[in-house]
Every structure is written in structure tokens, then in C-alpha cells.
Amino acid sequence: MSELLNRRLHLLGEPANLSLLTQCLHGIERECLRVTADGRLAQTPHPEALGAALTHEQLTTDYSEALLEFITPALADPAATLQSLESIHRFAYSGLGSELLWSPSMPCVLPAEEDIPIAWYGTSNIGQLKHVYRKGLAVRYGKTMQCIAGIHYNFSIPDAVWPLLRDAEGGSGTDRDYQSTAYIGLVRNFRRYSWLLMYLFGASPALDAGFLRGRAHQLDTFDATTLYLPYATSLRMSDLGYQNNAQAGLTPCYNDLPSYTESLRKAVATPYPPYQEIGTHKDGEWLQLNTNILQIENEYYSNIRPKRVTYPGERPIQALNARGVQYVEVRCLDINPFLPTGVDLAEAKFLDAFLLYCALETSPLLQGSECDACTTNFLSVVKEGRRPGLQLQRDGQAISLQAWAGELLERIAPIAALLDRANGESAHAQALAAQQAKLADPTLTPSAQVLAAMQANKEGFIAFSLRQSEAHADYLRGQALSVEEQRRFDQQARESIAKQAAMEQEEVGDFDLFVAAYQASILAISH
Q: What are phi and psi of 71, to 5 degrees?
């Protein structure tokens, strides 16, 4: 453990400060496809019983009309966050009829590319903006890639921690700047160590052969319908996902907040010739919001994002520039197909200790070849993380995954212990022990368990996933929400529909001008 980390843990462990660690906030977003009873992509519109995707705060759609997204509030107790997530799942099932929620990250059997329905948000300008943005994603990356689902884990450390550390260490600068710098440091360490999360929680070693649409690949054949890699942890996070040249040159290395927001601002304002060739319109219809490297900031696919809650009409990088970093969004987590909500408390408790480690440990700037090594290590682990003897790169030297992961888990142990002391429990230490067991025995990892279940049942990816989806549906439908909770969700759904209708009725100004103003707002931001 570094001297800095040691001092910081000692300071946070003092009686006057210990309770701060009970005030970290946790939010979860879970994406999942709606599928038919036989495991095909649902072609039905977003169910009215679930409310309006544009205006509902907890239940929306992501890329496709069939790709639901469940959003919990940010709560201090991760168990309460998970309870909220489960309640949203139960409510969703009350309005899904015979449809199912697809259990893994990689998609079900998909229809032809043109038959994948893009999410629709009504006729208001903001609703149309969201729809056209998704049309642009289809043009740029294809619709198939957009049907992959994941878990996003939002995590914040209480604001009061940062001035405490700064003052103890004789630091300078405003509270806001110190906090942003610390979160960017967390992000850099996350880039260094996130391969560990892929080994421990990756759960997509196989996929439906039809997903590749006949493209060349280097996967092995599991059976007539399924492709896989024997040691893969997360094909979802591999280069099978977003193969996109426009973003290839865009690798903000997170050395400070201004350079991060500036690299995104530039990407949203810089034309990209292949997209210019496509244009923004065809036969009077919008094809994409603009012809730049990114249409909007959120198009940048990264495995973690520094975030700040935005005001209505405000863009993500405007919020970051104005008020600094408030939390991080971890975006690389697969959905665990063995769990009804795709994630459990042990994973959340370990993530808290891991993210706190990334935040409190020294975090030198990513320089020279280290940035590339972070990407290479990550890709090695998603494709062959369970391969015996797998070597990663650290400080220009080869090191085995086993040795490095063992060291990291050892360094995270005092943080897990401190979190347990603050919360009066042993759940973090238990979560850490569960991860150490996976390191000692790779067959305990979710990715290995997926392949083992498919082999044991002599079933391909789709049959396995459908079986899990049906089991989760039985579990979630089997315990209805309380009358009061069901009433509250129904009320939220009705209010969201009314809110969207009001927005559409009160809309002023035409859509083309709205897009022009939205585009101008990014050009106006500069340092």
C-alpha cells in the first residue's frame, strides 16, 4: 500500500470522519431487451402501461424501442438501490403481457437490420432530437451493435471528504477544483485496473452467430448457432462491439477535467469526412444530428465517465465545466444472466471498495505508452482473461494477471475493512473474499459459469438465455409489488404520459431551428 493511501485511510478511519464513508451514493441503470416468449426481439411499441419513455424518470428506453432502461435513484445504501431496481423490474413485468426481459448482455435472435425498431419519443423537439440521434447511431455503427445491454453503476464519494483530504495534505485550490481533480484521478486508476472487473464480473463469453451478420471474426464455434471464445470474459466489451474509426483517434487520457471536456467539445464540433458524405438529410428526412466525429458527448463510448447532474437544456460538458465532477458512471459491467436484476449486493459492495481504492490511491498522469497499455490489458482480459498464465503489461514489464490481480485485491482489503467498520457489518470483506475465490478458481467466474451451463445442458447461447429469462420472469412475477407500490408506479406512468402530451402541445419553434441552437450551444463552450 502506498504511503498516501495509508495516510488517507487513517484519516478517514478517525471517529470524527468514519461516518462519511456511509454517505457514498449508489445508483444503477440496467438495460435489457424486451423479447417475445420464443426469444425474438419484440416489435411492439414501448408498453403504454410503463409510461412515456421521454419523461419517466425510472423507466425509459435506450437505443431501440425494445431496449428498456431501468434507473434507480442514487441512495446511500446499495441494498436499497438494488431493492429499487428489483421493484422497477417487478413493475415492468406487470405491463409486459407475454413478453420477457432478456437475461444477458448480448442480444437475442435479431431481425434484419432494417427491422430493429429505433426508440420513438413523440413529436416534441427534444423527443425528436433523441430519435434523430439514434438514427445517426444506426448510420454510424449499425443497429445490431446498439442492441447490446449492460449495467451502469453510478458512484459518488461525499463532497465533505475532499476538503478534508486537501487540508490534511496541504493542498490548495477551491473545493470544486480539488474534487474534480480527485475524480479524474479515480478515472485514471480505473483505466489502469478495470481489466480486473472484466475478469471478476464479465459474463458474455458467447453470442448468437447471427449477431455478426456474416462479418469475418476470430471466434470459435460452440454449436450451429453459437460462437464463443473459450477463455473470454466479456465479448460485449471486446472490439466486436463498437468498431468505429471516427472514435479511434479520440482517447482522452483523463489528465485533467479541462482537457477531457475540451477533447469531447472538439469531437462534437469537428466534421468527419465519411459522415459528411452521408449528410444530415435524405429526401427531406433527418439522418443524423450533424456530420461531426460525435453527434453529442454521450456518443463517446468509454468504460467510465466523470459526470455531473445536468439542468434542463444543459449539455453534459457544460455542467462539468460549470460545476465540476459530482460522480462517476462505470459502464463496462455485463449483466449477470444468473441474477434476476443482473447484479447483486456482493458485486456492489466490491465495486464500492474498488472505486474507493481508485479514488484514494496515488494516480500519476497517464503518459507515453501507459495509455495504450491500459487499452491493451483491457482487451486481453475481455477476450482471454481466464487463459492460464495470461500476461498483462505493467510499467513496461510483463506480469501475470494472477499476480497483479492478487496484489490489487490485497490492497483493496484495508478499504473493504474500513467500509465495514463504518457500516457496522462484514459485507465488504465477504465480497472481497468471493472475488479472491474467483481468482484462485476461474470456474467460479460468471463467464466460466455461462459456458459450463451451456455445456451441461447441451444448449446454445439463445436456449441458455431464454431459459434464464423465463426463470427470472417466474421469480419477478411470482412476488407482486405491494398494492401501494404498484399504485405509485402506475401513477408515475400516467404522469409521465401527461407530461409528454403537455410538452408536445406547448412546443414552440420548429425542429430544424432547435437542432441548430443545440449544435450552437456546444460551439459556444471553450476555455
A: -125, 120
What's the CA gap between 274 and 244, in Å, rounded?
11
* pLDDT higher than 90, residue 243: no
- Percentage of residues in the chain having pLDDT higher than 70: 98
Residue 288 vs residues 132, 407, 413, 508, 515: alpha-carbon distances, Å = 6, 47, 48, 22, 11
Beta-carbon-side half-sphere exposure of residue 14 (alpha carbons within 13 Å): 12
- Contact present, 53 and 121 (Cβ < 8 Å): yes
From the list 294, 28, 243, the residue with the least C-alpha distance to 152 is: 28
Listed residue (146, 211, 214, 220) closest to 383, CA to CA: 220
Nearest 5°: the CA angle 301, 304, 207 is 60
CA dihedral for 296, 154, 255, 193, sign (positive or negative): negative
Domains of the chain: 3-253+298-523 (3.30.590.20)
Predicted confidence band of residue 526 (pLDDT cuts 50, 70, 90): low
Cell triple for 330: 462505470
**Main-chain phi, psi angles of 366, to 5 degrees:** -85, 110
Does pLDDT of 242 surpass 60?
A: no
76 and 24 Cβ atoms separated by less than 8 Å: yes
Largest CA distance in the chain: 68
pLDDT: which is higher, 48 or 253: 48
User: Exposed e or buried b for every residue in 481-519, given b needs 16+ CB within 10 A?
Assistant: beeeeeeebbebbeebbeebeebeeebeeebeebbeebb
Residue 121 pLDDT > 60:
yes
Q: What is the mean pLDDT of residues 443-447?
A: 98
The residue behind cell 443482473 is 342
Mean predicted lDDT score pLDDT of the chain = 95
Q: What local confidence, expressed as pLDDT, does residue 527 receive?
A: 43
